[in-house]
């Protein structure tokens, strides 16, 4: 696979980032726009590490995928899911306000990332908030490779819990070459991603040269197995997992 | 820099605080991190090979490997993605016993651990000998599941867990400390969780 092969070691330094905007995404997810120096210098799919420091010096760190693609705004977008009793997500949900400054470093990660020269067809498979780095790739595609065939299989428990659903449906309607396949698992008539979903996606998309799968562990394991069983080479599939 | 309004959840009382390296949190789960799907590893054709550069030194079949002396280890593991897991139990073949069976001392000071998924990670030999590391084949009393790197993975608990390469197919001794997969992408060459060596320059 082609990706950045840095000749000099990458160094990720902590930097300050001001919260430029906060917006609700779903009942459990909020969007944070952060002003950072590298706002035009990252690859879709990369993540940042966030560090919060209490008065007494106690620190907590978490990793968040970037949802945006470089867009000239001088900011990156993170989407934070409010977790029950979440130490860091609780801060983002209950405390953080526009103008506040947090520390972060990045962009980190080259394996799970995509840019136009990497080509396609591009197959994206996301479960729940695992769609966030895939959203970044779709935003990048729209700007840099609008003719590239791409298909997103998005598994969500309910439509109201789906992240950026309006945007994804608008892209499906307006962007030639992009198809959204929504798999709603907890509603009447709902379905999980199965071998039939994958077979239909591959028939519609053609043979993908780049495949990215992101979500919780069991989701990524199941989806990867379906993709391999459908005949995709392991080497074209990149995965990113979160949670236990 | 103090974050306005951030209090944080203090570490649990007892020994959790002293057992948790800086920036880590405790999980009861066993998260899985890897770069792609699990590779297909068949015990009938599985081989474990020690190499010096490109030259093979010795190779073991699964049956031969299972006949080597066994080492057990019990303790805490730490992942660079910030989770730590306490009281894990592993069993396998120590690097010391492996070298003894090959009838050699380590020919160089560094090596690359190589996985069946073409993952690599670099380690100093000094961190693998003296009972510090093993090629693990059992976790919590059972064969290691493919999701956790079975049938055999490297196990180096005093370093961040990306150094404990899954689906291990061999160790390749190198003359210099050559960067592996993540190390080429900005991760720390050594990766000591107690010094919080996550990335280059940490």
UniProtKB/TrEMBL annotation, chain A:
<dbReference type="Pfam" id="PF00175">
    <property type="entry name" value="NAD_binding_1"/>
</dbReference>
<dbReference type="InterPro" id="IPR017938">
    <property type="entry name" value="Riboflavin_synthase-like_b-brl"/>
</dbReference>
<dbReference type="InterPro" id="IPR050415">
    <property type="entry name" value="MRET"/>
</dbReference>
<dbReference type="InterPro" id="IPR001433">
    <property type="entry name" value="OxRdtase_FAD/NAD-bd"/>
</dbReference>
<dbReference type="InterPro" id="IPR008333">
    <property type="entry name" value="Cbr1-like_FAD-bd_dom"/>
</dbReference>
<feature type="domain" description="FAD-binding FR-type">
    <location>
        <begin position="12"/>
        <end position="114"/>
    </location>
</feature>
<dbReference type="InterPro" id="IPR039261">
    <property type="entry name" value="FNR_nucleotide-bd"/>
</dbReference>
<dbReference type="InterPro" id="IPR001709">
    <property type="entry name" value="Flavoprot_Pyr_Nucl_cyt_Rdtase"/>
</dbReference>
<dbReference type="Pfam" id="PF00970">
    <property type="entry name" value="FAD_binding_6"/>
</dbReference>
<dbReference type="InterPro" id="IPR017927">
    <property type="entry name" value="FAD-bd_FR_type"/>
</dbReference>
<protein>
    <submittedName>
        <fullName>Propane 2-monooxygenase, reductase component</fullName>
    </submittedName>
</protein>
UniProtKB/TrEMBL annotation, chain B:
<protein>
    <submittedName>
        <fullName>Protein-methionine-sulfoxide reductase catalytic subunit MsrP</fullName>
    </submittedName>
</protein>
<dbReference type="InterPro" id="IPR036374">
    <property type="entry name" value="OxRdtase_Mopterin-bd_sf"/>
</dbReference>
<dbReference type="InterPro" id="IPR000572">
    <property type="entry name" value="OxRdtase_Mopterin-bd_dom"/>
</dbReference>
<feature type="region of interest" description="Disordered">
    <location>
        <begin position="1"/>
        <end position="21"/>
    </location>
</feature>
<feature type="domain" description="Oxidoreductase molybdopterin-binding">
    <location>
        <begin position="36"/>
        <end position="182"/>
    </location>
</feature>
<dbReference type="Pfam" id="PF00174">
    <property type="entry name" value="Oxidored_molyb"/>
</dbReference>
